[in-house]
Amino acid sequence: MRSMTRAATRTQQWLRLIKEAIKGEEKVYTAGSINRALVLLAIPMILEMSMESLFALVDAYFVGGLGKAAVATVGLTESVLSLIYAVAIGISMAATAIVARRIGEKDPEGAAHAAVQAVYLAMGFSAVVSILGVIFSREILALMGADAVMIENGHVYTKIALGSNLVVVLLFLINGIFRGAGEASIAMRSLVLANVLNIILCPVFIYGAGMGLEGAAIATLIGRGAGVCYQLYHLFGGNKLIQITWRHLRPDWQTILRMIKLASGGTLQFLIGSASWIFLIRIISQFGEDALAGYTFAIRVIVFAILPAWGLANAAATLVGQNLGANEPERAEKSVWKAAYMNMFFLGGISVLFMIFAPQILRIFSHDAAVLAYGIEGLRLISIGYIFYAFGMVMAQSFNGAGDTRTPTFINLFGFWMLQIPLAWLLAIVFKWGPTGVFWAIVIAESAIAVTAVVIFRKGKWKKVKV
Fold first, then answer.
1. Burial status of residue 329 (CB atoms within 10 A of its CB: 0-12, 13-18, 19 or more)
2. What is the pLDDT of residues 56-73, one digit of tens each?
3. Contact 442, 299 (CB under 8 A)
4. N or C: which end of the chain has fewer CB within 10 A?
5. CA 448 to each of CA 198, 415, 444: distance values in angstroms, whole numbers, following the listed order
């Protein structure tokens, strides 16, 4: 009876903790229980990343009904978009690190000032991408290996997706600002709003209005645009740790240049990884439409599992930044290790599920036997390295949270360009393993990156970085 009472009490405590995390009531993460601070930050960040995962799967599900060529077009376009996301994430990392550090130093004015300069930087970058994307959508698809039919049927989708990149860039950036301030619940709710609208509008525009692939792009634009409006409402109003007013809107070129310097490491870091994925999909495209579609579905499912794990990694980054700002480096390090072990158990369980249920999972998106064969193999092989990925992503985000964006950049340069790409080409083309060779190259490279990150993290130089 006592054991049942204790179990009920623990359940109630967890439910209260989850409710508190979602409401975002906690404001101080530099004192008290590390476990409590990590859970309060991680729950909304995991839900936020789960929403991003759901977004990818919903698009894949509805676009899957348009045929393999449409799926392949989306895969090629998103490979290019990943380059844009790399820059957006780089700027977001810089904003998260600076905002977290200022909040840890009890300087909300400095945090708000840095946030505005990050938004200006993102808007300038996005404008250039929009112009190029609208003008050269056909050429971009051709460069990625699309055939004439795919280009003709898919270039409008690519034009809309690239031309409206501002909403995606701002969604990433402003959520990074809120995470740095410890306002993770706002970031979560913005993605809930964006995804609910996307889920409703995707079938309406794609099938109901008969817009096809272009309907998917418009649904994305409306959904994520609404999420950005929600973010801006909270950024400019309310009683939050970070609140922008008119006095913060003046451009500060010195701060922008300093942010560019910090963001360049993060941008290059993710640009290296994103460019690597483009090379991989270019290799996969040589084995036909079935292989490309199967790979696209497998990656969507993998992203679905990986993004919630990034929620834990982002929580660790916020705790690192705020605790370094509060002059608590040892507390920052303990937070990282706790997050890494939590991530290991989570992704280890996901890996087992993928091994067992890969066929059932991928049949949600396609019933084509050839597409399924490639997708199932890719999902099972890539998930082998999930335990390594768990540590690698937490360590990388912890470096970034400290403002040390150079270290993970060099690690990625080695792991992706000097190991993954050459190995994928060697195994797939030279040894004639086909897509299987690409899948094994991903596992080997990602595992090597994780081990390297752990070794460097233990040296502790990241504790001395100033931002």
1. middle
2. 677 777 887 787 777 777
3. no
4. N
5. 37, 7, 6
What tokens were used for 308? Answer: 């919630």
pLDDT at 6: 63
pLDDT digits (tens, 9 = 90+) for 349-368: 999 999 999 999 988 888 88
Max CA-CA distance within the chain?
A: 71
CA distance 420 to 411: 12
DSSP class per residue in 396-462: HHHHHHTT--HHHHHHHIIIIIIIIHHHHHIIIIIS--THHHHHHHHHHHHHHHHHHHHHHHTT-GG
| Residues near 224 by beta carbon (within 8 Å), at least 6 away in sequence | 167, 168, 171, 194, 198
Structure tokens at 394: 């937490």
Q: How far apart are CA 73 and CA 147, in angstroms?
A: 10
Look up residue 286 and give its two tokens: 């040589």
Residue 122: phi, psi to the nearest 5?
A: -65, -40
Q: Are 122 and 175 in contact (CB under 8 A)?
A: no
With beta carbons less than 8 A apart as the criterion, state whether 342 and 403 touch: no
Residue 287's CB is within 10 A of a number of other CB atoms, namely 17
b/e map of 87-109 (b: 16 or more CB within 10 Å)?
bbbbbbbbbbbbbbbbbbeeebe
Over residues 136-143, mean pLDDT: 82
Instruction: Please count the residues of the chain.
Output: 467
Count of Cβ atoms closer than 10 Å to residue 207 Cβ: 14
The residue to which tokens 């990034």 are assigned: 310
